[in-house]
């Protein structure tokens, strides 16, 4: 599926007989939907980055716990 920008969609709608007003509305809705999806993806990316940073700390804590357990186990 090829990406269509709003101007291309508008031109195609007008060429197929859609009134300019309706074509403008549909193209504007497509643009708004694209903006909304783009913002949602950026928000998701920032949340995933935060989760990734949190996971690094969890690995460090888990590693420290394993070392503490093994050192206690081998010490006795």
Task: Give the structure's gist in a few sentences.
The protein has 76 residues and is mainly alpha-helical. The chain has helices spanning 6-15, 20-75.
Could you characterize what this model shows?
The protein has 76 residues and is an all-alpha fold. The protein has one domain. The protein is 87% helix and 0% strand. The protein is built from two helices and no strands. It has helices at 6-15, 20-75. α1 runs antiparallel to α2 (20-75). The longest helix is centred in the middle third of the chain and has 56 residues, at 20-75. The mean pLDDT is 85.
Using brief descriptors, characterize the structure shown:
76 residues; mainly alpha; 2 helices; 0% strand; rod-shaped
What is the H/E string? HH
The total of helices stands at 2
**Helix content estimate:** over 70%
Radius of gyration: 27 Å
Unreliable residue stretches: none
Strand content: under 5%
Give the overall shape, derived from the CA principal axes. rod-shaped
Give the averaged pLDDT, no decimals. Answer: 85
């Amino acid at each position: 599926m090829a990406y269509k920008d709003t101007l291309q969609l508008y031109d195609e709608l007008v060429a197929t007989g859609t009134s300019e007003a309706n074509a403008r509305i549909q193209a504007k809705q497509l643009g708004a939907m694209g903006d909304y999806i783009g913002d949602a993806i950026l928000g998701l990316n920032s949340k995933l980055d935060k989760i990734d940073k949190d996971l690094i700390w969890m690995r460090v804590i888990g590693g420290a716990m394993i070392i503490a357990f093994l050192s206690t186990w081998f010490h006795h």
